[in-house]
TrEMBL record:
This is Endonuclease/exonuclease/phosphatase (EEP) superfamily protein YafD. The chain crosses the membrane at residues 27-46, 58-78, 85-102. Residues 121-329 form the Endonuclease/exonuclease/phosphatase domain. It comes from the Bacteria. It comes from Thermomonospora umbrina. InterPro entries: Endo/exonu/phosph_ase_sf, Endo/exonuclease/phosphatase.
């Protein structure tokens, strides 16, 4: 009996000294850290710009704010499992995910712009189904100077103008179409049509807006297609590249790009547009994480894909986001002071 007892005790000791529990903890800690790490790496290397990786990388990268919101999970997991190297790696991954989000939620410094103001409103009408009276209500509330409308159908034009839009904004450069491809600009002061960005799938009219006193602003209504197929990804990339660069004052022009970009600030293609002399109005005012699509449709993870980009020399005095009955997008309003 004594020998049996001794044998049992020896096996128990071997089990205690086995490295298997340690290997298990290490595997779990590194696997969890790796899941978030892959996402952080994908954003850092701008995976949506790499050839052949458009699908599903571009749609997925839109959800980066939600991944960043859960970045404490791998940190907590590594801490519970007492794996210090995985803990360090998880902390670095969390920092890489959270750091780009913080400026969007905090108002930054504004340029010392002293020019006149331009009040801009952009709204996607969801195949023209948005309620005209809601659009006009927002135009009146903010005394809007320029209105950019996406998914502007001939029926939507008829409904908006019958409701009185052209009494408030009598000047227009519009290209209404059936389905989602129509887009247009309405304005309080004269508009002069300019050549649109070349080769775009959706209409993206561009116009010179003349303010009282002689100042002009070049405005483009933006609407690249949603990148939900290989063909759509190609068009989405092309249309974002086709947007005009800001001159930074070299040609005396101030440019504003307003619309539904089907892109978030986590997409390298949108950041590239920003790098060409623009600032995101919501980002400037601490509203860069306010979702603009999917809220009214009940989406669990609504996204921020509607933007007003302004010449970075402009100051953004105010930004608001509003629901629009009949649309799955929210309207975005910005009060912009010109340089």
């Amino acid at each position: 009996m004594g020998s049996v007892s001794e044998t049992f005790t020896g096996e128990e000791a071997d089990a205690r000294s086995s490295p298997r529990p340690e290997r298990w903890r290490s595997a779990v800690a590194w696997t969890v850290a790796g899941c978030w790490g892959v996402w952080a790496a994908a954003r850092l290397v701008a995976v949506d710009r790499l050839p052949g990786l458009g699908m599903p990388a571009i749609p997925l990268i839109s959800f980066t704010p939600y991944v960043a919101a859960t970045a404490a999970v791998p940190v907590a997991c590594a801490a519970i499992l007492r794996h210090r190297w995985a803990l360090l790696a998880s902390a670095l991954v969390a920092a890489a995910l959270v750091a780009p989000m913080l400026p969007r939620a905090m108002a930054g410094g504004q340029p010392a712009a002293q020019g006149p103001t331009v009040r801009v409103l952009t709204a996607n009408l969801l195949f023209g189904q948005a309620r005209p009276e809601r659009v006009l209500q927002l135009v009146r509330r903010h005394d809007v100077d320029v209105l950019s409308l996406q998914e502007l159908t001939p029926q939507a034009v008829a409904g908006l103008e019958a409701a009185g839009l052209t009494r408030l904004l009598p000047y227009k450069v519009i290209d209404p179409r059936t389905g989602a491809a129509g887009t247009g600009l309405y304005a309080r002061h004269p508009l002069r049509a300019l050549p649109a960005p070349p080769g775009t799938v959706m209409a993206m009219p561009r116009a010179e807006f003349s303010l009282p006193g002689g100042r002009t602003v070049e405005v483009t209504a933006v609407h690249p297609p949603p990148p939900i197929s290989r063909a759509a990804v190609r068009h989405w990339r092309h249309d974002l590249r086709a947007l005009p660069s800001s001159s930074g004052g070299r040609d005396g022009r101030v440019r504003i790009l307003a619309g539904d970009y089907n892109a978030t600030l986590d997409h390298a293609h949108l950041r590239r547009v920003l790098s060409r002399g623009y600032a995101d109005a919501a980002d400037r005012t601490g509203g860069g994480l306010i979702p603009t699509w999917g809220v009214s449709a009940g989406a669990r993870t609504p996204l921020t894909i509607d933007h007003i980009l302004v010449d970075r020399r402009c100051a953004v005095r105010d930004l608001k986001v509003y629901d629009i009955a009949g649309s799955d997008h929210r309207a975005v309003f910005a009060d912009v002071r010109l340089p």
